[in-house]
Amino acid sequence: MSTKTCLNIVIADKNSLLVKGLAEMFKQDDRFDVRATATDGELFLKLVERISFDVGIIGWKMPYSDGHQVLTNLRERGSSIRVVVYSGADVSRQVRVLGGAGFYSKAKPPEGLIDLVCQVGQGNSIFPYEKHEAKTDLRLSSLTSRELEILEILSQGYSNRKIAGKLEISDNTVKFHLKNIFEKIQVDNRTQAVAFYNQLQKEKL
């Protein structure tokens, strides 16, 4: 077995029996090394500080720090750990917006989680298919408040330099935000971004 292809994982869920079962399932597959387990979000975050691993598999409803708080904490600290939320709650959209790498429902066979974690470990983001009608709302809801602010100003015809001056940030910061905005709303340039925003405004009328 090549250690280079082995994914180091940590599993956390409020249900200790579930954690034990998942750990046993992953240990039987030589593509994974279960580095540690936890039964609450706070312990998971402590493990992030103490050990090195690639993918975290966490529940959504956990004591002390739930899935929302865990993902927010990891994003704020700029962690490279990719997180898969394994939950019976329909929170895939929230997980995506908060920077999670994948979502898998507890209603599905647990074996499917193995393939999803493999794909996440390879750098992919895996989420359930969203109906087309919800796509616009999803794209907009993925933006931060600052990104929404910049998109609104952009729609008014402001240049990068003028946006920077208006918000008292650097030109590079504006470029960084625009890059993220384009990726999140799935457009290639500022013209398409403005068209997207203007169309949303028309739909609200």
Describe this structure in words.
With 205 residues, the protein is of the alpha/beta class. The protein has two domains: 3-121, Rossmann fold (3-Layer(aba) Sandwich), CATH 3.40.50.2300; 132-200, Winged helix-like DNA-binding domain superfamily/Winged helix DNA-binding domain (Arc Repressor Mutant, subunit A), CATH 1.10.10. It is built from ten helices and five strands; from the N terminus they run βαβαβαβαβαααααα. Strands 2-1-3-4-5 form a five-stranded parallel beta sheet. The N and C termini lie far apart (60 Å).
- Helical amount among residues, as a percent range? 40-55%
Low-confidence stretches: 131-135
Oligomer: single chain
CATH superfamily of the largest domain: Response regulator
* Coarse morphology: elongated
Biggest sheet character: 5 strands, parallel
The class by helix and strand makeup works out as: alpha/beta
Give the SSE string. Answer: EHEHEHEHEHHHHHH
Beta-strand residue percentage: 5-15%
What is the class of the largest domain in the CATH system?
Alpha Beta
| Radius of gyration over C-alpha positions, nearest whole angstrom | 19 Å
